[in-house]
Amino acid sequence: MATTEYAVNHPLAVKVWSRRLMQEALKETYASRFMSDSKDSLIYVKNDLKKGPGDRITVGLRVQLAANGVTGDATLEGQEEALSTFTDNLFIDQLRHAVRSGGEMSQQRVPFSIREEALEGLRDWISDKIDTGFFNQIAGNTGVTTASMLGMQSAATAPTGTGGANARIILGGAQASEASLSSSGSADDFQLTLIDRAVNLAKIATPMIRPIRVNGQPKYVAFLHPNQVRSMKTDATTARVTWYDTQKARVQGGETDNPIYNGALGEYNGVIIHESTRVPASPDNANARRAILCGAQAACLATGRRDSETQMKWTEELFDYENQLGVSIAYIWGLKKAVFNSVDFGTIVISTFASNP
Question: What are the phi and psi torsion angles at 69 (to 5°)?
């Protein structure tokens, strides 16, 4: 009986594994549910560099016209308003990693496929890098300096200052700095009313932080660290709204089939609330965590020029007279928080005391 086989290192087999790696890796990422090439998505996917060479995308923002115009038969000529635009730069770079077997006898001694385990290990590794880069970027985690942990960018941009129209950070309690946040069980802990403050700031910001469209409805998305979630859920202060009050009659998570709701804790004041261990600590206070409220185009993602189905490249090589198998992953990509005119465009950080229990 004739059979068709695709051995290790066969060109078609490598193509299949590249496609499988891409599909499984993105499925494993937390960030993938928020990605889209729509400007109404949280992570705006830019496809410019898939079509040609380059390592940078210049993202433009046009500010809304502000003049009053003219009425009636008043002369319009000479009253024109100049367009005002700002730009941000998103860089991409290649990130690679590899696994190499010890040889045929190493494979002989174990009941699993080293090749299959390598795929799963590299899949988990690249998924972690994408998610970690996403959270470090939107939280403005300047304490991290490794590009692979920052969406392949050279640095993260700190949240815009704590005062004025450009403020993009809210602090728990009445503290003036993240370094001052302290004392578990105090006003410095995460409270649900901080989301009210963040939503209000998003609406009055200049420019306004646009909500994401979910089934035609405007929504924001907030990411909290588990320690902040614990504080929010255990807050029973009668003088303010608490999580218990808002969730009495609400089914938590899965409120709609939209992927943005997948795994959500619930919704409050038009904000879909998610919990993630990757929400980073403040660079200025190891006991403080930076929750993030996000609107549309909070971050941008770009990938390099490759087959659209296999943006992640899977390579197999044999070493030592074909005794050892080496497999590698390569991904050309970049992810960055959107910042225009030195102001965070779609994010507000909510920093609170959040030490381990």
Answer: 75, -170
| pLDDT recorded at residue 132 | 97
Map out the domains of the chain as residue ranges: 11-64+81-139+300-339, 159-298+343-353
Nearest alpha carbon to residue 212 among 154, 164, 274, 153: 274
Phi, psi of 319 (to 5 degrees): -125, 165
The interaxial angle of helices 11-28 and 114-138, nearest 10 deg, is 40
Using CA atoms, how far residue 45 sits from 8, 18, 22, 36, 208, in Å, is: 34, 21, 16, 6, 21
What is the per-residue pLDDT for 26? 85
- Whether the bond into 207 is cis, omega within 30 of 0: yes
- Whether the pLDDT of residue 251 is over 50: the answer is no
Q: In this structure, which topology does domain 11-64+81-139+300-339 adopt according to CATH?
A: Major capsid protein gp5 fold (3.30.2400)
Closest CA to 331 of 127, 62, 73: 127
β-bridge pairing 35-36 and 43-46:
parallel
Give the sign of the dihedral formed by CA 305, CA 308, CA 311, CA 317: negative
- Evaluate if pTM is beyond 0.90: no
Between the alpha carbon of residue 209 and those of residues 88, 129, 343, the distances in Å are: 16, 27, 11
Q: Token digits for 83?
A: 């367009």
Exposure b/e, 313-344, CB count within 10 A at least 16 = b: bbebeeeeeeebbebbbbbbbbbbbbbbeebb
Residue for token pair 């086989």 = 5
Do residues 135 and 158 make contact, with C-beta atoms less than 8 angstroms apart? no
DSSP state of 148: G
Average pLDDT, the chain: 85
Answer yes or no: is pLDDT of 252 > 60. no
Give φ, ψ of 318 to 5 degrees: -110, 140
Q: Round to whole Å and give the CA distance between 35 and 330.
A: 20
Q: Which residues contact 186 (CB under 8 A, 6 or more apart)?
A: 173, 353
For β-strands 339-340 and 84-91, DSSP reports them as unpaired
d(Cα 111, Cα 204) in Å, to the nearest integer?
Answer: 60
